[in-house]
Known about the structure:
The structure is a homodimer. Chain A is elongated, with a radius of gyration of 17 Å. Chain A has helices at 3-19, 26-33, 40-43, 48-71, 77-94, 101-110, 115-135, 140-160, 164-184. The termini of chain A are far apart. Helix content of chain A is 78%, strand content 0%. Chain A has a single domain, classed as Tetracycline Repressor, domain 2 (Orthogonal Bundle), CATH 1.10.357.10. Chain A is mainly α. The A-B interface holds A 18-20, 22-23, 96-98, 104-105, 107-109, 111-113, 118, 121-122, 125, 141, 144-145, 147-153, 155-156, 158-161, 165, 168-169, 172, 175-176, 179-180 and B 18-20, 22-23, 96-98, 104-105, 107-109, 111-113, 118, 121-122, 125, 141, 144-145, 147-153, 155-156, 158-161, 165, 168-169, 172, 175-176, 179-180. Chain A binds a DNA duplex through residues 4, 25-27, 36-39, 41-43, 47-48.
Amino acid sequence: MNLAKQQILEAAARLFEKQGYHATGLNEIIRESGAPKGSLYYYFPEGKEQIGAETALWSAGQMAGRIRTGLAQSDDPAEAVRLLGLGTAEAIENAKFSAGGPLMMLAAESAVSSERLNAACREAYGLMQAAFSEKFSGNEPLARFVLAVLEGAILLSRVNHSADAVRQAAQYLETCVKLEMNKEK
Amino acid sequence: MNLAKQQILEAAARLFEKQGYHATGLNEIIRESGAPKGSLYYYFPEGKEQIGAETALWSAGQMAGRIRTGLAQSDDPAEAVRLLGLGTAEAIENAKFSAGGPLMMLAAESAVSSERLNAACREAYGLMQAAFSEKFSGNEPLARFVLAVLEGAILLSRVNHSADAVRQAAQYLETCVKLEMNKEK
DNA sequence: GTCTATACGGTGATAGAC
DNA sequence: GTCTATCACCGTATAGAC
């Protein structure tokens, strides 16, 4: 992918994550990106919605990678989830609670209003769910549950400016996953 | 509370829930509310932020009520949570996935940008957490966990236009709560 | 309490030069 | 590929009449 396009995408991701889709202006994205001002509509001819959609998918790819790395810390799926959660909590603190990636914002804001963005977000969450599902021997419902729990906990962490919700969720999740994975055998 | 003010608040709640805080204009709120156009800055002299903050708190009061009613369906906390979750899932379908109340949107969008809105959202979530905590003999961490799970599941339901995530979460949650409540005895 | 008019900045987007 | 000028529109907020 072209450098300027990539810069725009990453700047958009940061801004969407912090303040949301509608609160972020195109000018702001260009300013923050350092990319040439004329290149925005060159690389994203369909405008802001396209930027949102591509940001969602790109960011979900990143997140899926981090999830896989985090889950690789232990062979035991339940413990792996706990460790991933603890790592996420630390990341949230380092990011000063501008956390969870742009996907949460894009997903919430587009769910009812924008067909296209919504479709992209659905696919994006699918990528993340897949990263969990691999670790859970293909148990998709469990993967989706874990994903939902982490998203919810991250939301509360943003609001409370404290990663406690995520740390606690990690703890509870370990139990849930252990239980569910044993049931299968 | 004055009728016009109440109308504005409820219209704002609906719009914030559907499309978010920044995507909703003051004009739109007035149009939707049916309240006199001149009354907006009369009842909300501090403007949009005040509307957001009061909407968050009012809506959280409503939600806390619904949570209490839902949880009253069973004496067993674990089963009560499952029933509340199933009821929520149905409500989401009826609302055509414009779900979860305005609080989720307000919280996500204001977490980093607006000090005042963020404070209101924090308090609002506190009200909801309290409604759970009562049922869990004061177990605040568990209450917060359940709250986080439901918020996360609602987010995924919005994205996927399917209440499945909430139904499944309700199922998993019953197990979690049962486990945690037994541990205490 | 409510209304209208208005200020002023910002929005996403397009056209055409280079 | 990039820039600048410009578009029409919408945002929030205020002033002052009634």
